[in-house]
Amino acid sequence: xxxRRHAVGSALGxxxxxxxxxxxxxxxxxxxxxxxxxxxxxxxxxPPAAASTPPAATTGSLNTPATATAGASSVPEGAxxxxxxxxxxxxxxxxxxxxxxxxxxxxxxxxxxxxxxxxATEDPAVFSPDGLAGVDxxxxxxxxxxxxxxxxxxxxETYVEQGGGFAGVHSAADTEYDWPWYGELVGAWFRxxxxxxxxxxxxxxxxxxxxARLPARWTATDEWYDFRRNxxxxxxxxxxxxxxTYTGGAMGGDHPIAWCRDVGLGRSWxxxxxxxxxxxxxxxxxxxxxxxxxxxAGLVPADCAP
Length: 306
Known about the structure:
By secondary structure, the chain is an alpha/beta fold. The chain has a domain at 2-64 and 82-188 and 266-296: Rossmann fold. The protein has 7 helices and 11 strands. The strands form 2 sheets. A 9-stranded mixed β-sheet has the order 2-1-3-4-11-10-9-6-7, with helices on both faces. A two-stranded antiparallel sheet has the order 5-8. A hairpin with a 2-residue loop joins strand 10 and strand 11.
């Protein structure tokens, strides 16, 4: 518990730097490698205990800023002043990541600072036409296994095909293996991974909102997923991992780890990053996720052609 609490506090400290760097920036990501700067404490950090267990209610808890955050706009980003609404779903039916709590805390703080409404839940009943009404994007945050029944699957499929946004984080690719449409939505299913270790990440498209202000290459420590297929030619590749910089990679010289694609009238974005709580304390991951969420919600334009 000590490590987890420290990770949440560190994540929110770096978040203050990310948001300050994002002020007035349409991409929503910092213009420099903010992780090299010592993190500073937020005025009102999210308590780790409150963030460790997401709410089960289908309506969740909408977050509004209690105090102003440095560099953050208090004006909601939605059309006609309506705040964008994100449904963060973290149900697990197999392996459960310790990073789920810290990740929810970061996304909630992003919402509070930028005028997003964030609903965090593990209740699959929210996946219905009524439950998804008014949601700008659904986030599968480190889900695993079979998390939706057939009716709930149909609701998500209709939602995306008719224009909704979807973001998958890390083990969202280790989810719903028997649902072919979901495999196309997320882009590729997880196959295997070596031990958690440092590796060098490279930006493949510097124009996408989730990568536009990231360093061209940087070292991160994560669980480097291999996938059942290479998505290049199927999805728009955003980040790759250099297999020569770590051991145990199985995809060869071209190893995508983040991508986006259009699905029907909707938008899908996926990143394999985020396995550890410590990763959520880095400015790179926070900026990457912020840009991805804004893109699938339609707040900023993004080219996701393969």
